[in-house]
Each structure stands twice: as structure tokens, then as C-alpha cells.
Amino acid sequence: MIAPMPFTISLVLVACCQMEHYEVGIQLHCLCLKSGFVNVVLGTNLIDMYSKCQNVEASRRVFDHMEVDRNVLTWNSIVSSYARNSQPDEAMVLIREMLRSGVNPKQATYNSLLSSFSTDGHFDKCKQIQCRIIKEGFEVNHYLMVTLMTVYSECNGSLDDFWKLCSGVREWDQISWNALIAGLSHLEHGEEALTQFSFMREAGVETDHFTFISILSAITIASALRAGKKIHALILKYGYASHLDVQNGLVSMYARCGNVHDSRKVFSSMFTHDVISWNSLLSGYAHNGHGREVVELFEEMRRTEIKPNHATFLAVLTACSHVGMLDKGLEYFELMVNDKTLPPPPIEHYTTIVDLLGRFGYLNEAESFINNMPIEPGPSTYKSLLRACQVHGNKEIALQSAQMLLKLHPNDPAAYILLSNVLDDGGCWSDGAGVRKLMYDRGLAKKPGCSWI
User: Fold this and answer.
1) Above 80 in pLDDT, residue 270?
2) Would you give the end-to-end CA distance of the chain in angstroms?
3) Of 2.60.40, 3.40.50, 1.25.40, 1.10.1740, which CATH number belongs to 348-444?
4) Among 35, 77, 236, 245, which lies 20 to 30 A Cα-Cα from 337?
């Protein structure tokens, strides 16, 4: 029998990473321990294997046992492990430990870490990493700049800051243009994204499916149906009409622009569907007020092998609320809650049920539902109940809901306005005026509304 060498095991571990064969990876780890194979290459590959198989704890255990035998690739692997599994705070701690140990992060380390930043709360960390990148002279790296563009658009929300960053990009190739268009879409500047798409084509830069996915998202934001049809023609011309993600983008674009007929037409022409395909169609129909069709489509989806996720259920529950299908809405909510393959539903789903009960005037039931929620109710939950109280004239529950809402957000003018409206509708003019005066005395003001018409 020929015994495997460490080099052989390393190669097989790399294959396990690519194919995410967790069980085989564990067996190889056991073989390493049994054979006494311990070196930096094997340890680094084991960290990478566990990371890509989504077992960060195992990655960390391997890393901790390599106290002496660590190099920059080992550090890169453990930082990437936390970053890849959406744990940027832990990755930032490791970066600091890495610097204290005298190992300088490489460009790939920073790129992995930046890729894990995705919310407003991560922007300060993004700025810290950007400062390190500038200090170490990595700002000339094209891929790092493109990653920064993506992170800025997802975490910051400031168009001015995004443009300042873009001005530092030295090479405008397909990747840069795609990041620019995707960034503007994330920032919800659809018209500007369309303008930059035109500039990209004028510059002779080739488009790919990533370009079309981003520009379809921008068209959805801008509600530019005419431009959407032109992009659809380009997609057909360049041969991306059979790409699943592009097809999903077309389904969503047509539906969100009010053309549910063409949305359904694209959906029906697809050879395969995934959960995003169904969600795009369902949310599009719900967005345009076709609630009963949403329920019919959902029942059709349940007959397929594709399992609904939380986004699916939110679209269906919203549709049930808008068309007044109380029994169906409650049935689907129970179906979701009892589905053990899904994580616990977020606050939006509970708020939709409160809205559904409130529309039927079941205010006591809605209040009881809120009090028995397994998660903490949010402001949107109490606002939904307050609006129902205004419609049905229930002053008592309105006062209780407003009190809870003000505890959560004492500076939210919507709470004062909703409560004041309930009191005014109930004939308590002085009490309503008192609530508005309290709002103004606290320096709060409702943002004025606007209309496209």
C-alpha cells in the first residue's frame, strides 16, 4: 500500500475546497493527524477547506493549533474565513492581531475583508481599511479600488463620497464600469446608472451578464419601461437571454415597471426557474395590486420542487393583506412558521399579519398577536396597528400603541401624527392638537410628501 504524502493531501484538500466536500475534508484532516503531517501548507489548506464548507469554528481551531507555523497565507485564510462567512468584526480583530505579530496583510487580505462589509454599520470599518490601503500604497491596485466602489455603494449611501472614490480609479475596464453601474443602482440613482451605461458603450467597453443585471436593476428603480425594452433587445442581441440571473432581472424589471404581462411572458419562456425567479414574479404582481393572481402563482409554485423562502412569503402575505384574504394570509403564515427548514421569520412578516388583522377590524386580535410575538415588535408593527385604529376609530388601543411606539422611537414624528389623527377622527380635537403641539415643542416635523404626478 502506497502511503499518501503531505503534498498529495494538500492537492486533495484544494479539490475539497472547490467542490465543498466537507466529509472528505474531515477524513483528510484525521489522516493528517494520524500520520503526523503538520506543516504550514497543510494547516492553511485545512483552514481554507473548513471556511469554504462554512465551518468557521473548525477553521479557527486549526489556526489556533498553528501558533508557531503561520505565514501570511495562513493569516489571509483565517481572515477570509470570517469575512466569507459574514463576520467582519471578528475579521477586523484578526487583522489587528496580524499586524501586532509583525505580518503585513496583503492586497488579497484587504480585498476579502472589504467584501464582507455590506451595511451602514460597517462603513467606519471600511474607512479604516481604506486608510490602511492608502498607507501601504495599495490604492493603485485595480481590484481593491473596484471592491471599495462596491462597498461604498452598499455601506455609505452618499453619492458624493461614491463619486470621489470613483475619481481615483485609474483603469476603466469592464470590471470598473460594472462596479460603477452596480454602485449607482445600489444607491438608487437609476437615471444616472443609465447615463453611465451609455458612456460605457460609447467607450467601446464590452458588456457582460453582470452589466445587464445591474442596468436592469437601475431601470427598475427609475421605472423606465421604454429603456428596459431597449436593454431587453440588447440582451437578445448579445446572447444573454438564456442566462438565469438576466432572465430574473427581466421578470423583475417588467413587473416593477407595471408591465406584468411581459413579466409573465419572460417567466414562461424560461427553461428553468429558481426561487428568485418566482419571487420576482410574485413580488411584481403584488406590487401592481394583483393579489389573487399572487395566491394562484404561489399555489403553482408549491407544486414545484422549489421551496419558498422568506421573500416569497412576504410577497404572498402582503398580497393577502391588500386584497383582504384573511384566512389565506393566516394559513400561509402558519405554513411559514411551521416550516423547520426556514429560519424564524423577521419582523416584516409579523407586521404584515398585524396589517391584515387590522384591515378587517380585528384590533384586539392584532394587539394580542403583537403581545405574543416571539421577537421584539418594531416601530413598523405599532404604526400598522395605529393606522388600523385610525380607520376603525379605536382610541384606547391607539393610545397604547402610540405609547409603545414612542418608547422605541421618541423622535419619530409619524407616531405623533398617527395618534393625533386617531384623536381628531374620534372628535377629541383638543387632545389631537395637544399631541401635535408636543411634537412641535420637541422640534419634530413630518417630512413633506411628494408625487410623480
Assistant:
1) yes
2) 80
3) 1.25.40
4) 245
